[in-house]
Amino acid sequence: FILMLSLTLGTMITITSNHWVTAWAGLEINTLAIIPLISKSHHPRAIEAATKYFLTQATASALMLFSSMTNAWSSGQWDITQLTNPPSCLLLTAAIAIKLGLTPFHFWFPEVLQGSSLTTALLLSTAMKFPPTTILLLTSHSLNPTLLSTMAIMSIALGGWMGLNQTQTRKILAFSSISHLGWMTTIITYNPKLTLLTFYLYSLMTTSIFLSMNSTNTLKLSTLMTSWTKAPMLNTTLMLTLLSLAGLPPLTGFLPKWLIIQELTKQEMTTTATIISMLSLLGLFFYLRLTYCSTITLPPNSSNKMKQWSIKKPVNTLTPTL
Amino acid sequence: MALAATLLHNAYFCGRCCRHKALQPLLGPLLSDSLSKSYSSYRRPGSQPEKKTTWQNVDLSFKKSIEVLKTQLGMLKKETEDHLAGPEGQSLTHYMLEQTRVVWEFRSQEDLNKWVISSDVEIGGKSEVYLKLGRNNQTALLYGTLNTEVPRDGETKYSGYCSMRAKPLVGSFARKKYYDWSNFNSLYLRVRGDGRPWMVNIYTDPYFSHQKDDLYNYFMFTRGGPYWEEIKIPFSKFFLSSRGRVQDDQHPIWLDKISTVGFTIGDKVNGPFQLEIDFIGLLNDRAHTEEFAYETYEKNPPL
Q: How many C-beta atoms lie closer than 10 Å to residue A279's C-beta?
């Protein structure tokens, strides 16, 4: 319980800060609080995930501190919104990219999500992404847009490509998270409000997916296929949520994509817009495959795992229909 | 086991030319010597003195490197095609419906080359182990003599083990590849033993080196008869051990990142042994409901 409290505390400190040191402190509190959560089950893979998480996040925090210090050295002030020194802007972009898991710094993310339990994975992909995104928002006017767009396009490409034949649900969600972060980062220098909107909608959808998977305890694709016998209503809503994550039109997930593409075309970046929509097709493919697995086909066999039969809680069947 | 691993590492460093030597156990220590030197300078009685260091073996010819590059690019292309096809290179429907899978078969010399044999000769013991194709090229025969005589180096207390271990999968550009067996829940072995008990070991290659000795083991008891035995070992029964010592904190094996499987015999009985293996496969036993066989209660209950 204390760990949850520390997580909230850390997030609040970072969000409400306008001095670099408080932002960094909040991020560190978050990192330290979530490490025991990841390694709670004492499985070697969980410990490995916790070690990887700690190493990457510590490097990112150190880089962020370097960037704020060089900025303070050159401009004499520690205000987050007044980032003027170009090398420190670059360092900060790298630091936030590592923290968020943007390409080319994404390698830790699927492994860490795979090693942690489903609820911790949920926290890692929604709550832990929030403070770095706020820092990006605060400094977005001074960051190099080319670098950000390159990283964003690569993230979308990689998230789609690597997610293609994963069989572990947590890794699939990791790659979906990477590609959504890519979408969020494309628009940040032009219209940061859209980034926030994408982030909120993404967190909502991911939360509902993780919680549905948690109640049926699906860690891999084959378990997902057999969940229709346990809670059929949950299965249908899971399908809708997955399609929403993929960004299909009548569902909510399409909204951020549409607005982002609109904004990009307004900024004369139509090639970028076309490239990212083509690349999200890759993602769509594997989301469709997930839904195909879970709902559209009814597999002939049912799971023999005892854990699946314990219904933990009747999950939010309404959030995906937002 | 650790020396077998160094032997594997060396096999990749020295190029593919030395791979065929991996079958003979006496030459094994010769190859592993140069790498074991980097850990300590004490030479175990069973290993030969170093004649040629690894760096002298390096071949810097341009043509050969072009060929190697071509093979690696070919492998990369195949991996990309497999990636597009679906999990593990087969289509999704195949993955969804599969209930059995044969992972290792022994039909030709190449299949035998995928395995490495080792024995206590590495530490100075006297057991012998050989691997060859059985009758009609249908099986693999692992045979030899176990000798429990302890090597006299003042620190070894027990001796007498022989083992056979699969080589880990290697992708393009010498990257590690893993098996994904999450669809299955038992190991299925078709063997014909001689009544001696064997131990099956599964190695899930971890990322960090402090876990590199983690091994999941279970026993395989063979009957002696002339009839083939089909032994099913559910993965829930594998227990965790590290460097041969059973660990306190047990957990079920995670099947999504398996590196190698091995068989060891070390039952403290002097004498010959023989194990004939037809194939090693996986089974998704629908009737098996056990999650984990050891200590499923909560070890630190909240007060």
A: 22
Residues A13 and A134 in one domain: yes
Note the pLDDT of residue A301.
Answer: 52
Fold of B99-283: Jelly Rolls (2.60.120)
The domains of chain B are located at 62-97, 99-283
Interface of B with A (CB under 8 A): 82-88, 92, 95-97, 180, 182-183, 206-208, 211, 214, 249, 251, 254, 256-257, 286-289, 291
Q: Which residues of A fall within a CB distance of 8 Å from B211?
A: 44, 47-48
* Domain endpoint, select from A118, A143, A168: A143
Q: Is the CB of residue B7 less than 8 Å from the CB of residue B118?
A: yes
Residue A181 to residues A16, B168, B216, B251: CA-CA distances in angstroms?
A: 22, 35, 38, 34
pTM: 0.82
- Answer yes or no: do A164 and A274 share one domain: yes
Quote the ipTM score. Answer: 0.79
For the residues A19-47, what does the mean pLDDT come to?
89
- Single-letter amino acid, residue A85: N
- Using the beta-carbon criterion (under 8 Å), do A168 and B88 form an inter-chain contact? no
Inter-residue contact B102 to B184 (CB < 8 Å): no
- Specify whether A215 is located in the same domain as A293: yes
Which of B251, B253, B298 is the best mutation test for A, with the most CBs of A within 10 A?
B251
What are the pLDDT digits (tens) for A178-207?
A: 888 888 888 888 888 888 888 988 888 888
